[in-house]
Amino acid sequence: MIRTIDLSMKKVPRQRRAEVTVEAMIDAASELLSTLPYDSVTTNRIAERAGVGIGSLYQYFPNKEAIVARVVAYWVQDMLEEVGNALAASTQLSLAEAALAIVSTLFEVVDRHRVKVRLILEVIPFALQIPAVANLPRTLVMMSAQAQASIRDRLNFARPEVASYVLMVMTRASIIETVLHCPPHLARPEVERTIADFIARIMVGNTSPLVAA
After folding, report:
1. Which of 23, 52, 82, 201 could form a disulfide with 56 if both were Cys (CB 3.0 to 4.6 A apart)?
2. For the domain 71-204, what is the CATH superfamily, name and number?
3. Helix (H, G, I), strand (E, B) or coil at 115
4. 80-96 mean pLDDT
5. Which CATH code is given to the segment(s) 16-62?
6. Out of 11-20, 31-40, 72-81, 93-102, which region has the weakest mean confidence (pLDDT)?
7. Domain boundaries, the chain
8. Per-residue pLDDT at 185 exceeds 50
9. Residue 45 burial (CB < 10 Å; 0-12/13-18/19+)?
10. What are phi and psi of 189, to 5 degrees?
11. What is the pTM of this model?
């Protein structure tokens, strides 16, 4: 049974000085999580890195997990912004070009944040209790559906909403697995193009390759 953890802040900073203090603690936690093993990141280390007393930290956060949850929420927000920009730019491209552009950008985003992605998916034990992570599949599907709305008349989906969900799940899983655990005998650029070609062919209902090798 998964234990429910209190991930809420004890109080929200009201004054600018307090906001700066909380931001320093969150930044310190982010830096430590990105460079140290998860179990080595403690509230004492976070407070020390932030330059505040441990008592100040506990004024705002009940535990380490609450700070980690705040950090992860910011990480997810930043990554979603990058993905959203790529999806918005892809609406002016052909289907094949859009598929490759989106997949390439997703690869870049996941690769650039691979340490954070691995922490969220494979290390932080309570990650799915963090709202930003729990809502991520739905958020990505909504973003994908909005991007596809402008080209829907060119698609062959009988059930566009279901198709958006399946495509996003397939794409996300393939990209994350490739970035984190790609077999050494496979060239990642070839996997990237193959995923893009799969998506393009599914979108137009075509069995011929659409993405140039």
Report:
1. 52
2. Tetracycline Repressor, domain 2 (1.10.357.10)
3. helix
4. 77
5. 1.10.10.60
6. 93-102
7. 16-62, 71-204
8. yes
9. middle
10. -60, -35
11. 0.82
Q: Which amino acid is at 170?
A: M
pLDDT value of position 151? 56
Of the candidates 180, 183, 185, 178, which has an alpha carbon nearest to the alpha carbon of residue 198? Answer: 178
Amino acid identity of residue 38, one-letter, is Y
| Total count of residues recorded for the chain | 213
User: Does residue 53 have a pLDDT over 50?
Assistant: yes
Is the pLDDT at 147 greater than 80? The verdict is no
**Assigned token pair, 48:** 């020390």
Residue 57, both tokens: 């930290």
Any idea what the Cα angle at residue 179 is, between residues 175 and 181, rounded to 5°?
110
CB contact at 8 A, 97 and 204: no
